[in-house]
Amino acid sequence: MTKDELQSRTIDYLRFPLIIGVVFIHAFSSVVIVNGEIKTCESIGPLFYYSSEFFSHVLARTSIPLFFIISGFLFFYKKGFTPQLYKEKLKSRFKSLFIPYLYWNIFIILYHFIIQSFPIKNNLLYDASIIIRNFTFTDFAHAFGILSPCPINYPFWFIRDLMLAVLISPLIHSFIKKTKVSGIVFLGVIWYLGFWFHPAIIRPETLFFFSLGAFFSINKKNIVEESHKLFTSSIIIYSIIAIVDLLTKNFNFNIYIHKIGIICGCVCFINIIAFFIDKEKITPNKSLVIGSFIVYAIHEPFIKIFRIILFRTLKPESDGLMTLIYFIIPILIIFITLFIYYASRKLFPRFTKLTTGGR
Question: Of 132, 184, 220, 355, which has the fewest CB atoms closer than 10 Å, so is most exposed?
Answer without folding.
Answer: 220
